Amino acid sequence: MIPSPFTYKRATSADEALELAAEYGEDAKFLAGGHSLLPLMKLRLAAPEVLIDLGGIRDLSYIRDEGDHISIGALTRHHDVQHSDVLRAELPLLAHAAGQVGDPQIRHRGTIGGSVAHADPASDLPAVLLALGAVFIARGPQATREIPATEFFQSLFETSLEPGDLLTEIRIPKPARAGWAFEKFTQRAIDWAIVGVAVQGHQVALVNMGSVPLRATAVERALAAGDSPAAAAAHAAEGTSAPADIRATTPYREHLARVLTRRALEKIQ
Fold first, then answer.
1. Which residues does 32 contact at the CB level (< 8 Å), separation at least 6?
2. How many H-runs (helices) and E-runs (strands) does the chain carry?
3. Quick one: which H or E segment has residue 45?
4. Sheet of 28-31: strands edge to edge?
5. Mean pLDDT of the chain
6. pLDDT at residue number 40
7. What's the pLDDT score for residue 35?
8. Which among 122, 142, 209, 260 could bridge 192 via Cys, Cβ 3.0 to 4.6 Å?
């Protein structure tokens, strides 16, 4: 439970963070709240030679109403997302789901950008942002890119961020449909979801049903065709590749996906 030796660098601006990343290359890793990366380092599943601490970058923590969308700085903490009046009014799904992440200690330290960049398919917020149609803004050595959530998550712990890229902002369009719901099943309240479901209107995303957060496209097609919540939810496991582990078998996760999707859809009727 002791990480490999590493060099620690603390950035005070996004520009400085990018300069440090360019200097140390693939040996470096950005550190935000630390609740995703540090456990992997303690297990030696991750062993960066250089840690670039982003905690001192204050200008990447904000929530702004931009008219047709909401912009959220990547270093905004889960606690601030949960309690934002702007998000409660415009994106209540996101505010609610942020309040379900871990426990108060984790929510006061963990950041929304860290959760996204870590790309754990068992994490709540990546799937929520997928359901909301978010776009991720990444600054790199050469340019700034806008990456849709549908293209961002590539595989387990892998994203479309290039070496040296820094996730700086999340932009979320204001939903056209008002109905929303979030359901997840855990062994304990602070645990990762065994399965979770995020619904915004007719957009449905699944937590921990594959190597990346997934849109439940079969459910969405059924809803668009006018199916009832129960009939649409019956398709929730289609196109998924749910893992099997000590917490659940694949068939059990598939069953949970159908049950939780039905509950979520019935809430917004």
1. 54, 55, 74, 75, 110, 111, 113, 114, 117
2. 12, 14
3. none
4. 7-10, 50-53, 28-31
5. 94
6. 80
7. 73
8. 122
CA–CA gap between residue 184 and residue 122 (Å, rounded): 10
Go through the domains of the chain in sequence order and give each one's CATH number.
Answer: 7-53 (3.30.43.10), 59-173 (3.30.465.10), 181-267 (3.30.390.50)
Contact status, residue 191 vs residue 89, Cβ threshold 8 Å: no
* Pick from 101, 91, 102, 108: nearest CA to 170: 91
Would you say 165 and 27 are in contact if contact means Cβ atoms under 8 Å apart? no
Query: Could you tell me the CA-to-CA distances from 256 to 53, 126, 265 in Å, in that order?
Result: 38, 19, 14
* Neighbour order of strands in the sheet with 180-185: 180-185, 195-200, 203-207, 214-215
% of the chain beyond a pLDDT of 70: 100
Distance, CA of 200 to CA of 131 (rounded, Å): 6
In a 3-state reduction of DSSP, which class is residue 117? helix
Question: How do 28-31 and 50-53 pair as beta strands?
Answer: parallel
Q: Are 183 and 197 in contact (CB under 8 A)?
A: yes
What does each C-alpha distance from 208 to 32, 62, 201, 249 come to in angstroms?
Answer: 23, 28, 21, 12
For the segment 212-238, the average pLDDT, to the nearest whole number, is 98
Asked if residues 55 and 110 have their Cβ atoms less than 8 Å apart, the reply is: no
**C-alpha distances out from residue 150 to 74, 126, 158, Å:** 18, 10, 13
Strands 7-10 and 69-73, by their bridges, are: unpaired
pLDDT at residue 47, rounded to an integer: 85
Report the DSSP pairing between strands 69-73 and 63-65.
antiparallel
